[in-house]
Structures are given as structure tokens and as C-alpha cells.
Design a protein that fits this description.
mainly alpha, 74 residues, 43% helix
Length: 74
């Protein structure tokens, strides 16, 4: 499974940092798995315990750091 970029954007909108998101992408295989984590499990993994908010993408398609489309220069 992979992360939905819209969901990941929602975590950023909820207050996650880029570092938080990177740790989530590295440690958890999907947003479904992340959703099942308890606050304690997130803490043990060094992950934020957040629930995403609706991200305003204004018609843009988010690209995750793990995507082949993510610019290597970034």
C-alpha cells in the first residue's frame, strides 16, 4: 500500500512538519495503518498523533517525497 498524497497534505495542514511526514512515510506503509495507531504507539515510533484536516489543493495534485515525480533537487 502507499500513502494518498491528499491525506499526507492533510497531515501537514493539521500541523505535521516535513520531518514528521517523512518519518510517517518511512515507518508506516499507508494512511490506513497510521489511522489505526494509538497516541501511545505514535509516541513510541516518534510520530505525531494527528488527524488530517481537509487540505486546500486548489486543483493542484500533491506529490509526496517518496514519489518518482518528486524533484530530486528538493
Amino acid at each position: 500500500m502507499t500513502w494518498d498524497p491528499i491525506y499526507a497534505s492533510g497531515l501537514l495542514s493539521a500541523g505535521a512538519t516535513q520531518g514528521d511526514l517523512r518519518r510517517c512515510l518511512d515507518a508506516i506503509s499507508s494512511e490506513e495503518q497510521y489511522e489505526r495507531l494509538t497516541r501511545s504507539e505514535c509516541s513510541d515510533l516518534g510520530l505525531p498523533f494527528l488527524r488530517p484536516v481537509l487540505a486546500q489543493t486548489d486543483g493542484l495534485t500533491p506529490v509526496l517525497m517518496t514519489s518518482e515525480y518528486y524533484p530530486s533537487a528538493l
